[in-house]
Amino acid sequence: MAYSEIVNEIQEQMDDVTAQITSNNVAIEEKQAELADLQNRIHELQQQMQGLEALKANAEQLVASQNDVNVNLNVNVSADSNTNGNITVASGSSINQDGPFS
């Protein structure tokens, strides 16, 4: 075997190693892009989870207050010295329009 054949064989092995290095670098770049995409998805899912938690809290509050009735009652009492001690009482009440009696 001539020395030139040995040199050629070494060069072929070097070319193979160089090709593997290049292939590995491409694979690393692809995986890094995939990781970045997954990280973005995690961020989006976390935002979605926060929205769902807020919706759940609101729904739980609605369930807890579904039988509540809010009544506002105003009573005004006034006495006029010209009416011989008679007292006038005026009252008004209201029930929330969105309550169970709407």
What does this molecule look like?
The chain has 102 residues and is α+β, with helices and mostly antiparallel strands. It is 61% helix and 18% strand. It is built from one helix and two strands; from the N terminus they run αββ. A two-stranded antiparallel sheet has the order 1-2. Strand 1 and strand 2 form a beta hairpin. The mean pLDDT is 84.
Q: What string, H for helix and E for strand, traces the elements in order? A: HEE
Structural class: alpha+beta
* Amount of beta strand: 15-25%
Report the helical percentage: 55-70%
Low-pLDDT runs of 5+ residues are none
| Largest sheet data | 2 strands, antiparallel
Q: Tally of extended strands?
A: 2
- Count of discrete alpha- or pi-helical segments spanning 4 or more residues: 1
Radius of gyration (CA) equals 41 Å
- Average pLDDT confidence is 84
Question: Overall 3D geometry?
Answer: rod-shaped
Strand order of the largest sheet: 1-2
What is the terminal separation in angstroms? 103 Å
